[in-house]
Amino acid sequence: MARIKTISVTLCAVLLTTFSFVATPLAVASEHARPAKVQKTSTATNAKAKKKSTPAKKRIEKSKKSPTADKKPRTALKKRSTSPKTASRTTRTVSRVASTTSAACRKSRNASACLKSRSAKGLTIADAHKLRVQKAQKTAMSKLMQQIGKPYRWGGTSPRTGFDCSGLVWYAYKDLVKFRIPRTANEMYHLRDAAAVDRGALETGDLVFFRTQGRGTADHVGVYMGNGKFIQSPSSGQGIQITSLSEDYWKRHYVGARRVMTPKTIR
């Protein structure tokens, strides 16, 4: 019995020693294996994060490096500015501003001051002179139209008493031009300050001359009003009236025309 116990104890010891010898490497191996698994999982997660972040970084880098992002809007602006549609729109705007300016200055009481201020803002000098002449023409026509129907009076120069032909012209222009208006039709016809005008180029306000008595150069004068008509004070006993230049009598006796109102001659 004592021998059996000793053998059993010896076998148990041998088994325990063998088990401990085998278990120790397994534990060590498992401990070494754990960090490897952790490392693999960490590397996998890092790789996934890199894959997600790289597109965003590439986009930012592309946007920084690509020069076309800034150049496209500039080229588009250049095309718009040089396009014919934009040029035509600009021309229309300028013409509208000019027409509005002209109308405003015509209605203004102090037209000269208006024109000076408008010319400083972009109105051309030619347009300003044209407006001044048009204003003077309108004033002369207004004065003449107010005398229609009044009687002819030889040597007359006043609305109260009546006019002869040259007296009517003198009354209409004496305060509108810089030079002295002569008192007779023949002197007006030879006036150096008034340029000669062809019949086909007549404008409102031009003086038209006739030779009715067959002697001298010009013995009758009227003022052209446009549309082939002129205003006159005839000596035939009729009142001041508007007559057509196309009538046979006036066509036969017509001798010429003079322009008294120009940008240089009006006040």
Structure description:
The chain starts with a helix and ends in an 8-residue tail after the last strand. The radius of gyration is 54 Å and the shape is elongated. Mean pLDDT is 73; it is low at 18-33, 35-40, 66-73 and 75-82. The chain is an alpha+beta fold. The protein has eight helices and eight strands. Among the domains are: 1-47; 143-259, Alpha-Beta Complex (endopeptidase fold (from Nostoc punctiforme)), CATH 3.90.1720.10.
Strand order of the largest sheet: 3-8-4-5-6-7
* Mean pLDDT over the full residue set: 73
CATH class of the domain at 143-259: Alpha Beta
- Give the percentage of residues in beta strands: 5-15%
Structural class: alpha+beta
Instruction: Please name the fourth-level CATH homologous superfamily of the domain at 143-259.
Output: endopeptidase domain like (from Nostoc punctiforme)
Percentage of residues assigned to helices = 55-70%
The CATH architecture term of the domain at 143-259 is Alpha-Beta Complex
Shape: elongated
**Gap from first CA to last CA:** 159 Å
Q: What string, H for helix and E for strand, traces the elements in order?
A: HHHHHEEHHEEEEEHE
Task: Give me the Rg, rounded.
Answer: 54 Å
- Helix count, per DSSP? 8
Give the low-pLDDT segments. 18-33, 35-40, 66-73, 75-82
Q: How many individual β-strands? A: 8
